[in-house]
């Protein structure tokens, strides 16, 4: 839980809220097919998560100077993975800092799978 103190009182943010906003920002980036589950399913495949399950593909931790995010994504075939990962990191950091006014220490992106986009 993240707590912010203002003149009018305290604001408590659930880590699920942070995960939902992070998932929404990550899936808007070009080349990202969707969020992936952290845990491998069977036969080496990862589960593609829907909007309501973004928290299963994101781990939020408290760091020394801010929040550490571990984001698990699935990218499309034929895109430059390093560029997609960099864009996800930039967008997630920007969206969380402007929306929730929290400090981000790190955004770690893990590419779990590559999918052919129809």
Report on this structure.
The protein is of the alpha+beta class and 118 residues long. A hairpin with a 2-residue loop joins strand 1 (2-6) and strand 2 (9-13). The chain has helices at residues 15-27, 81-99; strands spanning 2-6, 9-13, 32-36, 48-49, 58-62, 67-76, 104-115. The mean pLDDT is 85. It is elongated. This is Gls24 family general stress protein. Belongs to the asp23 family.
Strand content: 35-45%
Assembly state (oligomeric): single chain
Q: Give the name of the CATH architecture.
A: 2-Layer Sandwich
Q: What share of residues is helical?
A: 25-40%
What's the end-to-end separation, in Å? 39 Å
Could you tell me the number of beta strands? 7
Class per helix and strand makeup: alpha+beta
How many structurally independent domains?
1
Anisotropy-based shape: elongated
**Rg, alpha carbons:** 15 Å
- According to CATH, the fold-level topology is Alpha-Beta Plaits
Residue-averaged pLDDT, rounded?
Answer: 85
The CATH class turns out to be Alpha Beta
Family: Belongs to the asp23 family.
InterPro entries: Asp23
Pfam families: Asp23 (PF03780)
Protein name: Gls24 family general stress protein
């Amino acid at each position: 839980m993240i707590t912010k103190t203002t003149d009018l009182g305290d604001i408590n943010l659930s880590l699920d809220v942070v995960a939902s906003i992070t998932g929404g920002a990550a899936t808007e980036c070009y080349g990202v097919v969707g969020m992936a589950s952290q845990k491998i399913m069977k036969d080496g495949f990862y589960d593609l998560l829907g909007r309501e399950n973004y928290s299963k593909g994101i781990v939020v931790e408290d760091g020394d100077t801010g929040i550490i995010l571990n984001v698990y994504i699935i990218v499309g075939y034929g895109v430059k993975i390093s560029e997609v990962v960099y864009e996800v990191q930039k967008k997630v950091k920007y969206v969380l800092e402007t929306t929730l006014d929290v400090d981000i220490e790190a955004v770690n992106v893990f590419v779990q799978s590559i999918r052919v986009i129809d």
